């Protein structure tokens, strides 16, 4: 069945305006998912739980995202783009209320899981909605704008969240309350915006089934190299959205919540900007830059941990972030380039499943290791393993896309 993308409801906003408001909603919803990042160390100080518990709380989010992507990430093709967005924002509103009223570890787990469910429902729907709103308003003019804006809203939102959370925790009263109150207000406004946004998909009746996953029969070596690439990329994202603030507070004796939020922000910002900046560059060159940046950045993290040099830790994260953004984009392109258009959704679903396994499993293993070993050798070991993955995946794909 082919999705109909004609404007089916005018809403109260013109399509051109709705494009930018939808981007803002997408950014706000993604930002909420990382607002708790700089607050984990405060929860630890208040409740006295060990660092490995932070990894479990974070993993609940990643599990929610993966489950939601598999079960409902594709339903906007026939139920419309707006219902998944409303569903996602409602889940995030519930999560923000839970953070406010019941900030204990079991409830934090539930709130993070609900947040993940919302993100999984929103990501594909919002990305597709942006493209359709833009085409309705502008036709084929500057056709690449929606992809760039979606990237900035998605990855940029993930970076904005910890920065805002850190600033509010540092300078506003009630550091474990104010960030969620602000989030609650923003999410309510986002829900109103979604309701007045035009729909772009004509609803149709269609039996529900989970998203199919597909591994191409041809070019499997490229697919698995791409899978290793997105796994490595999301492992670094996982580190900086879960454990990096705890490392900064513990190993580097940096109590600043602003720093705890600014470092993940920088990693995500560089990843997003790097993708946009390198768009005109050949894929092979992107892969070379990505591999070098990730290996050098991760080496910087390891050396910073060994020498206890905070600025080098931050610099290593930023350099690795550039590599993460480029390797992730190139890996998705390499994987989807193996199949025809009708199968690309299934291949993308498989790649995102691998990505969220990468977001979850390495961080959980790091958390488990920290329960028995000092943090520094664990961080060095993590950096070494992910650097090897990147060093294998990047060149392998570069050889296969040398003509592009």
TrEMBL record:
Domain (Major facilitator superfamily (MFS) profile) ranges: 17-398
Membrane-spanning intervals of the chain: 18-43, 49-72, 84-103, 109-131, 143-168, 180-201, 222-246, 258-278, 285-307, 313-335, 347-372, 378-399
Entry annotated with the keyword Cytoplasm: no
Keywords: Cell membrane, Membrane, Transmembrane, Transmembrane helix, Transport
Main localization category: membrane
Domain of life: Bacteria
Membrane topology field: Multi-pass membrane protein
Location(s) in or outside the cell: Cell membrane
Keyword Iron in record: no
Signal sequence extent: none
UniProt name for this protein: MFS transporter
Organism: Amnibacterium soli
């Amino acid at each position: 069945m082919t999705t109909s993308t004609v404007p089916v409801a005018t809403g109260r906003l013109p399509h051109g305006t709705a494009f930018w408001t939808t981007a803002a909603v997408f950014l706000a919803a993604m930002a909420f998912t990382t607002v708790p990042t700089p607050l984990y160390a405060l929860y630890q100080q208040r409740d006295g739980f060990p660092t490995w518990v932070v990894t479990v709380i974070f993993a609940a989010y990643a599990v929610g995202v993966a489950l939601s992507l598999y079960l409902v990430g594709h339903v906007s093709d026939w139920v419309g783009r707006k219902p998944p967005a409303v569903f996602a924002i409602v889940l995030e509103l519930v999560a923000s209320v839970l953070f406010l009223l019941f900030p204990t570890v079991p409830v934090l787990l539930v709130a993070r899981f609900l947040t993940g469910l919302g993100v999984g429902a929103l990501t594909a729907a919002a990305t597709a909605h942006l493209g359709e709103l833009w085409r309705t308003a502008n036709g084929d003019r500057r056709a690449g704008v929606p992809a760039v804006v979606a990237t900035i809203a998605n990855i940029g939102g993930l970076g904005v969240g910890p920065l805002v959370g850190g600033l509010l925790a540092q300078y506003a009263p009630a550091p474990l309350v104010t960030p969620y109150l602000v989030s609650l207000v923003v999410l309510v406004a986002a829900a109103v915006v979604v309701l007045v946004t035009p729909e772009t998909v004509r609803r149709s009746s269609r039996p529900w089934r989970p998203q199919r996953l597909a591994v191409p029969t041809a070019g499997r070596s490229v697919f698995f190299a791409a899978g290793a690439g997105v796994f490595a990329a999301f492992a670094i994202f996982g580190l900086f959205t879960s454990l990096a603030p705890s490392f900064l507070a513990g190993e580097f004796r940096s109590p600043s919540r602003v720093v705890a939020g600014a470092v993940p922000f920088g990693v995500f910002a560089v990843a997003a900007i790097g993708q946009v900046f390198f768009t005109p560059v050949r894929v092979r060159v992107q892969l070379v830059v990505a591999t070098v940046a990730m290996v050098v950045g991760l080496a910087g993290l390891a050396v910073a941990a060994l020498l206890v040099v905070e600025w080098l830790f931050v610099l290593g994260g930023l350099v690795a972030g550039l590599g993460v953004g480029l390797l992730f984009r190139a890996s998705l392109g390499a994987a989807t380039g193996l199949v025809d258009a009708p199968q690309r959704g299934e291949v993308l679903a498989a790649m995102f499943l691998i990505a969220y396994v990468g977001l979850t499993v390495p961080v959980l293993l790091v958390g488990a290791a920290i329960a028995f070993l000092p943090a520094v050798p664990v961080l060095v070991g993590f950096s070494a393993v992910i650097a090897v993955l990147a060093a294998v995946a990047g060149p392998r794909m570069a050889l296969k896309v040398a003509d592009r």
